[in-house]
Amino acid sequence: MELYFNKQLISTLYRTNRHEAEFNYRYYLIAKLHFHRRSGIFSINELMDILYTNYNHKTLHHNPGNNRAKFRKRLQASFNASMLFERLQDGRYKAKTEKRCFRYSQRIKTPPEALKSKRAFIDALICVIMAGNGFKSYNQAAEQTGYTPSRIQYAVRRGAAAGFLEKTNNLVITDVSSADKREVEQARRFFARIHGIFTPGPLRYKGQYHLCFYAPNSYSIVDRGHKGTSGHLTYITKQCRYKIIDRLQQINVMLFNTNYSMTQYVDDYGYNNI
Asked: Tens digits of per-residue pLDDT, 184-215?
C-alpha cells in the first residue's frame, strides 16, 4: 500500500494542536498502512509490535524492562481524544476514513521513509504544507505550525536534498532595466544602501538586463505522475501580489500585480519596515 499525505487534513490538524498533527497523525498513517486489510482496525498491542519491528521503537520489546505499559497508556489517552481514531466496544481502535471529513482533498504521495522517525515525519509535514498552489513564506508556515522560520527552512532544504521537493525561485521584474548591465548593478547598490533591500544579480530577459526583487519561493512535489499530487499550478493572480509572465528553468519571472506596487514592496521589506 502506498503512503499518501492529505494536505487539507494536515492543515486542520495543526489548527487543532501540534500533538494531533505530529503524534496522532503519524500513528494514524502507520495503522492505515499496516492494517488496511482489516479496515484499519487494530489493538494497541498489535500497533506496538509493528512499531518495535518496523519503526525503531526499541523499548517496546517483550522482555523485562520494556516500556510497553507506559507507552500503551500514552497511546490510549491520545487516541481517545483524537479526531482520527474511533474506539470500538471491544477496546480496539479504528483509523477513521479521511472521506468523512474531506470529500475533496489533495493527496500527496510520500516516501514511506517519512514514517521512520519523528524528525523525518515533521520534515515531510512541513514539505507538504509548503508545496502547492500559491506562495507561502517561511514565516507563514512557521505561524501555522508553531516552529521557527529557520526550522521550516531546514525541513525544506532536507526535502529538496532528498528529492521530495522541487524549489522554484520567484523573481519580480521592476521598472529598472537597461541594455547596459552596469546601470542595473548601480540600481542594485542604491536599493541596498538606501532601502536595505538586497536583490539578485541582473536578470537578462528578452534582450535587456532587469533589476529584480525576490518573492517568496514556491515548492512542488517532485513526483507528479500520480493523481492528486501537487505540481506547478497556475497562481490565482487576483489574490496574489505578483503575476507570472514567463517560466524559465526553476525560475518564475513575474510582475507586480495591479493591487501591489513596487513602492509597497519597498515599504514592506525596506528600512521603513524595520
From this structure: 999 999 999 999 999 999 999 989 999 999 98
Q: Are 192 and 240 in contact (CB under 8 A)?
A: no
pTM exceeding 0.90: no
Residue 245, all three cell numbers: 509572465
Sequence-distant (6+) residues with CB within 8 A of 239 are: none
How is 217-265 classified by DSSP, letter by letter?
EEEEES--SSTT---SPPP-GGGSSEEEEEEETTEEEEEE-TTS-HHHH
What domains does the chain contain, in order, with CATH numbers? 1-105 (1.10.10), 166-273 (no CATH)
Which of these ranges, 208-212, 261-265, 268-272, has the smallest mean pLDDT?
Answer: 268-272
Collect all residues with Cβ–Cβ distance below 8 Å to 263 and sequence separation of at least 6.
Answer: none
Is the Cα dihedral 62, 64, 69, 71 positive or negative? negative
Bridge-based pairing of strands 4-6 and 107-109 is antiparallel
- Asked if residue 109 lies in contact with residue 3, where contact means CB atoms within 8 angstroms, the answer is yes
Task: Enter the C-alpha cell of residue 48.
Answer: 506496538
The two beta strands, 165-178 and 93-95, are: unpaired
Amino acid identity of 257? N
Decide: 84 and 26 in contact? Cβ < 8 Å: no
Report the pLDDT value the prediction gives residue 234, as an integer from 0 to 100. Answer: 35
Q: What H or E segment, with its residue span, contains residue 78?
A: helix 68-80
Give the span between the Cα atoms of 71 and 73, in whole angstroms.
5
pLDDT at 104 over 70: no
pLDDT of 90: 94
